[in-house]
From TrEMBL, chain A:
Record flagged with keyword Nucleotidyltransferase: no
Biological role: The electron transfer flavoprotein serves as a specific electron acceptor for other dehydrogenases. It transfers the electrons to the main respiratory chain via ETF-ubiquinone oxidoreductase (ETF dehydrogenase).
Name the record gives this protein: Electron transfer flavoprotein subunit beta
UniProt keyword list: Electron transport, Transport
UniProtKB/TrEMBL annotation, chain B:
Family: Belongs to the acyl-CoA dehydrogenase family.
Cofactor: FAD
Pfam families documented for this protein: Acyl-CoA_dh_1, Acyl-CoA_dh_M, Acyl-CoA_dh_N
Protein name per the record: Acyl-CoA dehydrogenase
Organism: Nocardioides iriomotensis
Keywords assigned: FAD, Flavoprotein, Oxidoreductase
Coiled coil: none
Single GO MF descriptor: flavin adenine dinucleotide binding
């Protein structure tokens, strides 16, 4: 089986993240890394590989700036077999539609039975790329899996909803996305770090994919971030003191005012 | 704030990155509680072992990481900065493998080393006895030859991982009387050997997450194939390992001091007196500056010794200097960290009082700092040659 895992290089979510003047994410001032939500995708791909025949190969694919090779390398250190990095100045500022276009065209050039994605990126956070990919590739999209099993040609997931837990299955080839409940991602080992140095990583540009530079990037974006405001600093909490038996009502009123009950 | 480092290879930088990830997510959150409840974190060593961190300085062909001491020690420092009991444990484990790696036969290495370096097994080291600490030749534990076996009788004190380890590197007397340096031999004893038992762990002042126990040998039968080196070479093997072990402790102590400094700086930036952060008061900033100088000095000193070792140069004196400087500095830095945090520093709600207790033992074990001064003094008396050595480039595959 051939598995492609799509991963994104994102600013470290634990750092003090900022936007540039044009409202795009500041990718220079903050250390970047493999999106934690995509680590779950890498983990599930590796678990599927572990259970499959020996010839199963996991290719990790990233569309992003030069530094995005760090994300590819981390996935290789975890155990993926090879990497593809699509880098092109014209891609900067792309929205989800354009990103999914580049990913889809790259995936078409890689042998694939299964495409695995995280549930969303930790920077953009839209969570729409997996569905867009399935549309562009013309294959089923089995998304938001918290438990994944592959038997033969069938991929089955458990999707945890607010009101129900659904079991969804599809036949290969398909696009799968996995949640942060699907199982903790493994740490690389030092041997994995050493082995990753010898694993092949190909670098492709838009012309390698036959994608017109005018169809991606900030200029082609269907959606634009108009303005951003920093979240206001956290304010002190409200303390309810129960002196005359009214405490319970005060608590209920507070929760009701915040629509928790 | 993790320390800024200069590393020889990209793989070493990735290795440090992996260690920081593991330390931040898996070690640091558990350290305080395990230390308070005196719980030995055996599973943490399995995690480190699976990540390949328990065999870093040993050859790849036996399952090690083939890393120079310059890199291995910085890994130890990073671990020590978050949890010194674990840092000490990794150093002790490396030391427990040292005799086999350096003095074992090829057959012994092939047979035992991969499991010891591969991460599933944890090692311990039995040299000291109740009456033989700084003077190990005074040991009285016996190993009597009996057919194809040796039979060990006696007691070994201060065994780190005692009762938890899977194997014990044991120095015992095959001939001579206590005080005789030539009659000591080295054995690799599996933990499940009949007659080997651990006393209740010592009730220590610090490093309470690390079990330290006296090991009792009551007619413990060890096959002769588990003797490392020749009969009578045991003390030499033990002492050769100690130089490397001292570097390990120097690195862990440096990490401990870095951890205390980080706590002190973070507190000093938050805490205000007289209308400004206390770090902006010169008197306090100078205390922190001296702490930083002590940490940087310790790091530079152990790395200087490590680079000598990596170049194949004699490094015994430099290892003693590193152990002395790093652990004395750790004692000073952790004490000052308590001072910076004031009354809060003296409570168990903050980790710095624990760091201070942990620093104390580092001046004592792996050769007391008085012994280190003795080693250095003897080298001075002998007169070291003023050699000039040109660095050999390391192979980076």
């Amino acid at each position: 089986m051939n598995i492609v895992v799509c991963v994104k290089y994102v600013p470290d979510a634990t750092a003090d993240r900022k936007f540039e003047d044009d409202n795009t994410v500041d990718r220079v001032g903050v250390d970047g890394l493999l999106s934690e939500l995509d680590e779950y995708a890498v983990e599930q791909a590796l678990q599927i590989k572990d259970k499959q025949a020996d010839d199963t190969e996991v290719t990790v694919l990233s569309v992003g700036p030069e530094n995005a090779t760090d994300a590819v390398r981390k996935a290789l250190q975890m155990g993926a077999d090879k990497g593809v990095h699509v880098v092109d100045d014209a891609i900067a500022g792309s929205d989800a539609l354009a990103t999914s276009l580049v990913l889809a065209e790259a995936i078409k050039k890689i042998p694939h039975d299964l495409v695995v994605c995280g549930m969303a990126s930790t920077d953009g956070g839209m969570g729409v790329v997996p569905a867009m990919l399935s549309e562009r590739l013309g294959v089923p999209g089995v998304t938001l899996g918290s438990e994944i099993s592959v038997e033969g040609e069938t991929v089955k997931i458990r999707r945890d909803g607010d009101a129900s837990t659904d079991t969804i299955e599809g036949s290969l080839p398909l696009v799968l996305s996995v949640t942060d409940q699907s199982g903790e991602a493994r740490y690389p080992s030092f041997k994995g770090i050493m082995a990753a140095k010898k694993k092949p990583v190909e670098t492709w540009s838009l012309s390698d994919l036959g994608v017109d530079a005018g169809s991606v990037g900030a200029g082609a974006a269907w959606s634009v971030v108009e303005s951003t405001d920093a979240r206001p600093p956290r304010t002190a909490g409200e303390i309810v003191t129960d002196e005359d038996g009214s405490g319970a009502k005060a608590l209920v009123d507070f929760l009701a005012s915040k629509k928790f009950i | 704030m993790p320390a800024s480092r200069v590393l020889p290879t990209e793989e070493a930088a990735d290795l440090i990155g992996l260690v920081r990830d593991l330390v931040t997510k898996e070690l640091a959150p558990r350290a305080a509680e395990a230390e308070a409840t005196e719980t030995f974190p055996r599973d943490v060593f399995r995690l480190l072992g699976r990540a390949g961190l328990l065999g870093l300085p040993y050859p790849e062909e036996y399952g090690g990481g083939a890393q120079p001491y310059e890199v291995y020690l910085q890994v130890l420092e990073e671990i020590g900065a978050a949890w010194s009991s674990v840092g000490v444990g990794v150093s002790v484990h490396a030391l427990s493998c040292f005799g086999l790696a350096t003095r074992g036969t090829e057959e012994q290495r092939q047979k035992f080393l991969p499991d010891m370096l591969g991460g599933d097994l944890l090692g311990a080291y039995c040299l000291s006895e109740p009456q033989a600490g700084s003077d190990p030749a005074a040991m009285s534990t016996r190993a009597r030859r009996d057919g194809d076996d040796y039979v060990l009788d006696g007691a070994k004190a201060w065994t780190t991982h005692g009762g938890h380890a899977d194997f014990y590197k044991v120095m015992a007397r095959t001939s001579g009387e206590p005080g005789d340096r030539a009659g000591i031999s080295c054995f690799l004893v599996p933990a499940d050997a009949a007659g080997l038992t651990a006393d209740a762990p010592e009730k220590k002042m610090g490093l309470t997450g690390s079990a330290t126990a006296t090991m009792r040998f009551d007619g413990v039968r060890v096959p002769a194939e588990r003797r490392l080196g020749e009969e009578g070479e045991g003390l030499k093997i033990a002492l050769a390992g100690l130089d490397s072990g001292r570097l390990g402790i120097a690195a862990v102590a440096t990490g401990l001091a870095q951890g205390a400094l980080d706590q002190a700086v973070a507190y000093a930036q938050e805490r205000e007196t007289f209308g400004r952060a206390i770090i902006d008061h010169q008197g306090l900033a100078f205390v922190l500056a001296d702490m930083e100088a002590a940490v940087e000095t310790a790091r530079a000193t152990y790395l200087a010794a490590a680079r000598r070792k990596d170049q194949g140069l004699p490094f015994s004196t430099q290892a003693s200097v590193a152990k002395l400087v790093a652990t004395d500095n750790a004692m000073k830095v952790t004490t000052d960290a308590v001072q910076v945090l004031g009354g809060y520093g003296y409570t168990r709600d903050f980790p710095v009082e624990r760091y201070m207790r942990e620093a104390k033992v580092m001046q004592i074990f792996e050769g007391t700092n008085q012994i280190q001064r003795m080693v250095i003094g003897r080298a001075l008396a002998k007169g070291a040659p003023a050699t000039l050595h040109v660095t050999q480039q390391q192979e980076t595959s």
